[in-house]
Inverse folding.
């Protein structure tokens, strides 16, 4: 049996490493990478089959570097799965470290933000330094008792650290959404979502409404709408959209073709099984896959009665 190569944002002990372990039911070789860009490049170059990167956090929102790689990087990389991980933040340090002596706290920028209130109350004078991941922060603690990291219990075990303070996040039920990247779309499962980015092009009144209406008129639920600068000029934005359904479904395909007519560019980022709760799609009978198939058959019958030159 072949071993699947999975790149992830490392080092071992990060939330991404746990997500990578959950990504594949086949035997896998997990390969940590220093940055999100390195993970994407490894998949794009064929050095790894899949890549696991963070996309969104319930407190701090989207991970911009991941969005940028998907939207502005070379095409051909797609989301094929999502994994939602509960997030618990702990303050990690050497066994002999004392809370009052901590001068530097390192972690991923999102982790630092999620513990902003706790840090202000307990370590108001400590300098906060952002690094590429929570596990990298734990690795950097090293032999210095004045440096602490915000990270996981797995990172503490991996790097021989102690938990100085447990569960220091400012919000309960925090979660991070990771995505699995590959060079192929995932097949439809009947419980899917499709992610895309829309580049609107020349601005005109009602353009965004036209885009959104392509989904509304087909009873397709949108679970995410987010704008991001196109990096071309100030005030110009692209729109990230998640919708319920797989691109192979007739009504989703029709919606995508409709959006494509209105905009400068439509990039489909992936169709994949959704891990969320409450995303069940309940289309009316005239928006069901059966209704779209019947309409297509009816139209084919009509067209068959036309002369060749009229088709």
């Amino acid at each position: 049996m072949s071993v699947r190569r999975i790149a992830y944002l490392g080092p071992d002990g990060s939330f991404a490493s746990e997500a990578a372990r959950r990504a594949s039911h086949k035997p896998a070789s997990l390969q940590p990478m220093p940055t999100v860009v390195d993970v994407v490049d490894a998949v794009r170059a064929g050095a790894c089959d899949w890549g696991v990167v963070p996309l969104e956090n319930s407190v701090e929102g989207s991970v911009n570097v991941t969005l940028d790689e998907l939207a502005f990087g070379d095409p051909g990389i797609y989301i094929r799965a999502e994994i939602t991980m509960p997030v618990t933040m702990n303050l990690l340090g050497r066994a002999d470290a004392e809370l009052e002596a901590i001068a530097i706290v390192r972690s991923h920028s999102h982790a630092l933000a999620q513990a902003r209130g706790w840090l202000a109350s307990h370590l108001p004078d400590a300098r906060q330094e952002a690094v590429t991941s929570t596990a990298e922060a734990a690795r950097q603690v090293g032999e210095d008792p004045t440096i602490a990291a915000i990270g996981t219990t797995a990172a503490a075990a991996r790097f021989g650290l102690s938990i100085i303070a447990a569960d220091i996040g400012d919000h309960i039920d925090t979660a991070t959404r990771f995505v699995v990247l590959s060079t192929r779309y995932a097949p439809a499962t009947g419980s899917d979502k499709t992610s895309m980015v829309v580049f609107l092009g020349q601005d005109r009144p009602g353009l965004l409404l036209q885009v959104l209406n392509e989904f509304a008129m087909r009873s397709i639920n949108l679970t995410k709408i987010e704008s991001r600068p196109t990096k071309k000029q100030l005030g110009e934005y692209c729109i990230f959209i998640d919708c319920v359904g797989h691109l192979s479904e007739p009504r989703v395909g029709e919606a995508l073709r409709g959006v494509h007519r209105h905009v400068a560019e439509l990039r489909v980022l992936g169709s994949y099984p959704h891990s969320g709760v409450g995303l069940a799609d309940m289309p009316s009978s005239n928006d069901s896959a059966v209704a779209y198939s019947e309409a297509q058959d009816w139209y084919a019958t009509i067209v068959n009665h036309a002369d060749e030159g009229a088709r």
